[in-house]
Write a structure and sequence with these properties.
38% of the residues lie in helices and 23% in strands. It has 266 residues and is α/β, with parallel strands linked by helices. It is globular, with a radius of gyration of 18 Å. 47% of the residues are buried.
Length: 266
C-alpha cells in the first residue's frame, strides 16, 4: 500500500482543515503544514490543499479534486481598508505585502471593476492607510477592526461575489495526474484523511473558534460568522467562480483546461 502524504497551506483561512492537525486532534503522520505552501512543495504530496491561483499553475501535472477546498460567498478573510468610503476614492496605491496569490487576484478583479478605484500602483512595502493609499489585509488581520472609525474595511471576497455572482474559491485540493492513473486508491485515502480532519474541526467547532480567537486576538463572534460562510467542496458554481476569476484577471489558463482538470475521487 502506497504511503499517503498531505500538504496544507496553513493559515487561518484553512483552519477547519489545519487546526485539528495542529491541536493533535487527528493522526498527524505524513501531513505537512506550511504557510504559503508553494507549488514546488505541493507537487511531492499525494494531495495538497493549496492556494487556488497557485493550483492553476500546476494543471499540466495535477488534477483539481472537487472533494475538498475552501469556497466563500458573502464573507471572506480578505479586506481592503480605505481612508473614507471606497466609492469616494478615485485613485490609490494598493498595498499588498504578504497577500496570497488568490487574494491578489481578487483584489485585481474588484478594486476597479466593483469600487471604481483607479489603481496607480501595487506596493509590496508596508504602508499605512491615507488619502492615496489603500491596504489589503488577509486572514486574521482582515478580521480585526481598524481602530480609526473613520476608515472603511471592505470584504473583497464578498465584493467578488456581488460583482461576478459567483463564489470566491481561495483554496483547492490537487493531486498528481500520474498517481490518479496508477493508484487512485491512495488519493482516495488521502482525501478521506484530509476531510476527516475537517470533520473533526466542525465537530469541535466551539473549541476551534475559542482557541483561534484567543490565539489571534480576534473577536469570537466575527470569527464564527466568517467561518460559517465557508463551504468545502467545488460544486459547479464554485468551479465557475474559479474559471471566471482566471478570466477576469488574465491568468492565462483556459476555461476548458480548468474544467477538464476538475475531478471527483469519491
Amino acid at each position: 500500500m502506497t504511503t499517503t502524504t498531505i500538504a496544507i497551506d496553513d493559515r487561518l483561512t484553512t483552519a477547519m482543515y489545519s487546526y485539528p492537525i495542529t491541536a493533535g486532534w487527528v493522526e498527524t503522520s505524513g501531513i505537512t503544514l506550511a504557510r504559503g505552501l508553494r507549488p514546488d512543495d505541493a507537487r511531492h504530496a499525494t494531495v495538497a490543499l493549496i492556494d487556488s491561483v497557485y493550483a492553476l499553475t500546476m494543471l499540466d501535472t495535477h488534477v483539481i479534486l472537487r472533494d475538498a477546498g475552501i469556497v466563500w460567498r458573502t464573507a471572506s478573510m480578505l479586506t481592503m481598508t480605505t481612508h473614507t468610503r471606497p466609492d469616494e476614492v478615485e485613485q490609490a496605491t494598493i498595498v499588498i505585502p504578504g497577500i496570497s496569490a488568490a487574494g491578489r487576484a481578487v483584489a485585481t478583479a474588484v478594486i476597479t471593476a466593483f469600487y471604481g478605484i483607479t489603481v496607480t500602483d501595487w506596493s509590496e512595502e508596508a504602508r499605512d492607510v491615507d488619502e492615496t493609499t489603500a491596504v489589503i489585509s488577509e486572514d486574521a488581520a482582515a478580521l480585526i477592526a481598524d481602530e480609526d472609525e473613520d476608515r472603511y474595511q471592505e470584504d473583497l471576497g464578498r465584493a467578488w461575489f456581488l460583482l461576478a455572482n459567483l463564489p470566491f474559491v481561495s483554496h483547492v485540493c490537487v493531486a498528481p495526474r500520474a498517481l490518479l492513473a496508477s493508484d487512485p486508491a491512495s488519493i482516495s485515502r488521502a482525501v478521506e484523511r484530509l476531510n476527516g480532519a475537517k470533520t473533526i474541526g466542525q465537530d469541535r467547532g466551539r473549541e476551534l473558534r475559542r482557541d483561534l480567537s484567543k490565539g489571534f486576538n480576534i473577536d469570537r463572534d466575527t470569527l464564527t460568522e466568517t467561518l460559517a460562510d465557508q463551504t468545502f467542496t467545488l460544486d459547479d458554481e464554485a468551479l465557475d467562480g474559479l474559471v471566471e476569476l482566471a478570466r477576469r484577471t488574465g491568468l492565462g489558463v483556459a476555461r476548458d483546461k480548468i474544467r477538464g482538470a476538475a475531478v471527483r475521487i469519491s
